[in-house]
Amino acid sequence: FVNKLQYLARIDRARALTAQTAETDAIRFLVGTQSLKFDNQIHIIDFDDENNVINKSVLLHDAGEIWHISGSPADKAVLTTCYSKTSESRVLTCAAVWRMPPEWESGNHESPDDSSNNPQTLELLCHLDNTAHGSVACVLWEPMGDGKRVISLAENHVLLWDLQESSTKATISSSATLEGKGQLKFTAGKWSPHHNNTQLATANDTAIRGWDLRSMSQIYCIENAHGQLVRDLDFNPNKQYYLASCGDDCKVKFWDVRHINEPVKCLEEHSHWVWSVRYNHSHDQLLLTGSSDSRVILSNMVSISSEPFGHLVDDDELSDNEESQQEDKGKEPLQDSIIATYEEHEDSVYAVEWSAADPWLFASLSYDGRLVINRVPRALKYRILL
Amino acid sequence: PLWIKAAAPSTNNNSSSTTPPDSDPNGRRRIHSMLKLYYGLNEEGKAADQAESLDPCDINGPHFDPEVYLNKLRKECSLGELMDHESCMVKQIRSLDSDMQTLVYENYNKFISATDTIRKMKNDFKKMEDEMDCLSANMASITEFSARISGTLQDQHAQITKLSGVHTLLRKLQFLFELPARLNKCLELQAYAQAVSAHRRARCVLQQYSHMPSFRGIQDDCHVIMEQLAQQLRQKFRDGGSSAKDLSECVELLLQLDEPAEELCDKFLSHAQSRLEADLQGLEAELKDSAITDTDILEFIDRGCNEFVSSLCLVIASYQELFINQMANGKLHVFVDTLAARYFSLVERRIQEEKGVSDNSLLVRALDRFHRRLQAISKLLPGSAVPSHGTEIVVQAARERIKQYLSALQTFYHDSLTDVRQALAAPRGASSKDATPSLPELLASLSNFILNQLKSVLASVHLFTAKDITFSNKPYFKGEFCSQGVREGLVVSFIKFICQSSRQYCESAGDRGGSTPPALLLLLSRLCLDYETSTISYILTLTDEQFLVQHHTPVTPVTALCAEAREAAQKLLNHYVKVQGLIISQMLRKSVETRDWVNTIEPRNVRAVMKRVVEDTTSIDVQVGLLYEEGVRKAHSSDSSKRTFSVYSSSRQQIRYAPSYTPSAPMDTNLLSNIHKLFSERIDIFSPVEFNKVSVLTGIIKISLKTFLECVRLRTFGRYGLQQIQVDCHYLQMYLWRFVSDENLVHFLLDEIVCSAAHRCLDPSPMEQSVIEVICERG
């Protein structure tokens, strides 16, 4: 049984990684490359669970280097990228909605020797026109939505877009602007899957802000959430008020947004900036973090998870036999702990992502273009399940 | 005749003595013994002499036979020998003769006077004999007369004895008859004691003869009077007011009057209680006033001892004197315990008010007096729990005192730190040199302050165990107070507090990094390290010596404390590195983020921010150098500042040979840095540092350069942007290598920065190395 697989993307640099959100059968990740000199690409990484093989396909993304990538939750062929465009010696980061050409999947798996095979190009659906608002930091799809609403964070603006006519037209339905001293700029954001998808969390500098999308107004603000810049956020998929954040102070903090004065918990395991934090979609005690100390850390935060006492056992099950009780006695309750530190990367890890299809699988991407797919250790998996 | 007697042995000796008599003490003794022999005086070893002297040839023996001797000589000796023998004998005889003569002359006069004396004595004894006879005759006649007289007086003597018996009986009777009157008089004069003793004397007699009417009358009278008396006594008793001594007298009399002891006892105690309560109320009032009148604790305890404790002792003593035979001690115990409990609560309240830690001796003296006076109770009332309770109060007070000292020490420590902070915040350089002390001076003074304060506190606490303090020999003060109280509760806690509060500086200040000045972090780290290396063991040894601590319970070992101090020092130093690194990082980050790197002009100078970085690093180097040792660095090349970046050339190569991108061909741009990474160790940016200057500086530079790298990676560069980065990195290279332990680290990070900038460059055409060098050397 192979616990990890590596894929050294033959690309210059890469920062953008996402799981294909709408794909629930195949384990598939999308990686966007970052190169100023060459054509940028989207690498589609397929992991064949049964054979432990990685298959990869390449799609051309000729608009520019990719800073952020995000897949539609409704249509697995649709995705958004944030890319930088240089025009008149000005660098601007734009966002667009793309569709993968339908043929890519049909036997177009690139083989190492097959260099002659020219990659296919992404089909542009529409631009999220941001010339008025400045560089886009990220684009967020409505979680579990119908793929018709996205939010883009551009400089200090929150823009809510409606995608119409099968995503070929994007119109701003509402927007909000963060006002304040100095040049404010969003660095990260997350659309909350709770409260009927009406809430958004953003990060700028050291603060984390919550927004109500109906009124487009701020609902909470955690000033100085981190000692330095906040790099990433993620919502606990099962606990509606819980939120994890990470930043340049090497810390990962957990917040209950109802009590924003103090973090619920704070981890300090990385030795440099933490760039990415992700809750496991199904088992929210599992938390993945990636840092520019080239490490990926998988933590088990039982105490603040939705299953603090482990898997709940049904009463029927208990009364069934006494053996299970004895087993329970033997099992100690799980403690908050670091499960594993993955050191396969040799450069800063800017993105980590759980697979959308298999909750026990995750990928991490470092700047040198190395993608590593790992599994949650089996012992832990069984402990969580049983 | 004496002369003849004395001469006789000389004849005997004439032929026998062979030794010259003069000059030899042995010879003289022999002469003496011979004389004694002659006079028949007994001598020890006489039998042996006789046995010896049976030999007829022994010239000195009594059985000496000249004939036998002569024959023997003639038979055995030659003529010459005989001649010699003869002449020798003649010589001896001659000397014996002269001895004899001398003796006779010497003793002649004595003999004469002795003879006279004896003759005189003979005459006197004869006279005495006659007188003795006369005396014995007289004595006989006296004896006869005496016997006759006593015979005649016998009858009269018996009569006299009888008469005197009657006389005493009459006197007794008179006493009885007079008793009622006397009692009345006593009653009038309030001479109760006399009355009671008189009545007591008469009581049994009256009881015995009560069948006779006259006696009965007397008895009844007495009864009435005594009843009256008892009534009066009871009244007096009930009134109270009178002194304790009076009271006890009263009780004694009533007891003698067969009053029920139980009742009396209760009454007695209730009276005593009311008086003691008055004392307590007085104390309580003083306690309330103490805030106003400002009496010290010693006065308070004094008053308590003199008033309450001494009257309590008096009560106990008189109780025991009065009731101890009749009553069990239980009542007294309850009584004493309740009152003492109230007294104790007052004392406790007063002790609790004693908050100031300035003068401990007063408290110790007060407690000593308190404790000493309670010992009196323990002597009077052996089983009482009061003294032990009192000891508990003393123990509690001592415990409380230690806590107060600990908190005082903690406040002192905080105050000292505030002082240090102010000294650090004071503008440096603006004023003259001596106005702002340097870091080592501050450290030394801080550490001295703390140590002195601790020592003075130890001295104060030591008063509790002084020899002249009564409670110092209690087991608590010998054992637990020293080990658990002073050592653990005070010294160890204080050291732990220092470590803990130091650690708090790391946590509270961690978020924005600004609240604690970095110099303070550095200073505290050094302080903790000093504690680890020497101060802790010094303090603990001092404590152990001063308090002769015998550890019955496990105590915190020195090593654990040292480990804690070291941990704190490490944490502080790490935090210092983090804070300083952050300050430089922020400068670098701002400089990278705010600049438009695409549209920048061709570099002519090193950017000011880089110079600032080098300046700041240099001043940090100086600052750390004041407190920490240099540390070791890896050997470096002879001229590191001149080193040209290998990657400059390689990056140039990369760009020159930049292949048109083909997905199949592996990019060799990555290869070099990947190979480099393969062989270099992973760099932990925020890793713990060692306690030396080089390691600290390495940490700060690592953090700064890594920030630089990450910021560069987020930007896009134009041609001149890249060139500016090249210049800046070269400048940093020139100056930063000397601060770090391993210059390769700086090389590696700077390589990465330039490499990343090259990758992020729209038009990557690097600057010539020589031009870079010229720019950097120019300034």
Care to describe what's here?
The complex is a heterodimer of chains A (386) and B (779). With 386 residues, chain A is mostly beta strands. Chain A is built from 3 helices and 29 strands. A 5-stranded mixed beta sheet of chain A has the order 2-3-4-5-9, with no helix packed on it. In chain A, strands 1-29-28-27 form a 4-stranded antiparallel beta sheet, with no helix packed on it. A 4-stranded antiparallel beta sheet of chain A has the order 6-7-8-10, with no helix packed on it. In chain A, strand 11 (136-141) and strand 12 form a beta hairpin. Chain A starts with a strand and ends with a helix. Residues 110-116 and 313-330 of chain A have low confidence and may be disordered. With 779 residues, chain B is mainly alpha-helical. The termini of chain B are far apart. In chain B, 76% of the residues lie in helices and 0% in strands. In chain B, helix 7 runs antiparallel to helix 8 (244-256), helix 14 packs parallel to helix 16 (518-547) and helix 21 (693-713) runs parallel beside helix 23. Residues 1-23, 43-50, 429-435, 509-513 and 637-669 of chain B have low confidence and may be disordered. Chain B is built from 24 helices and no strands. Chain B is flat, with a radius of gyration of 60 Å.
Features:
heterodimer; A: 386 residues; mainly beta; 5-stranded mixed beta sheet; 4-stranded antiparallel beta sheet; 3 helices; 6% helix; B: 779 residues; mainly alpha; 24 helices; disordered N terminus; Vps51 (chain B)
Order of helices and strands of chain B: HHHHHHHHHHHHHHHHHHHHHHHH
In whole angstroms, the N-to-C terminal distance of chain A is: 20 Å
| Helix content percent band of chain A | under 10%
> What are the low-pLDDT stretches of chain B, counting only 5+ consecutive residues below 50?
1-23, 43-50, 429-435, 509-513, 637-669
Shape of chain A: globular
Most extensive interface: pair and counts? A-B, 41 and 37 residues
Largest sheet of chain B: none
| N-to-C CA distance of chain B | 152 Å
Radius of gyration from the alpha-carbon trace of chain A, in angstroms:
21 Å
Contiguous uncertain segments of 5+ residues of chain A: 110-116, 313-330
Multimeric state of these chains?
A: heterodimer
- Structural shape of chain B: flat
- The tally of helices of chain A reads 3
Helical percentage of chain B: over 70%
Strand order of the largest sheet of chain A: 2-3-4-5-9
Secondary structure: number of strands of chain B: 0
| Gyration radius over CA of chain B | 60 Å
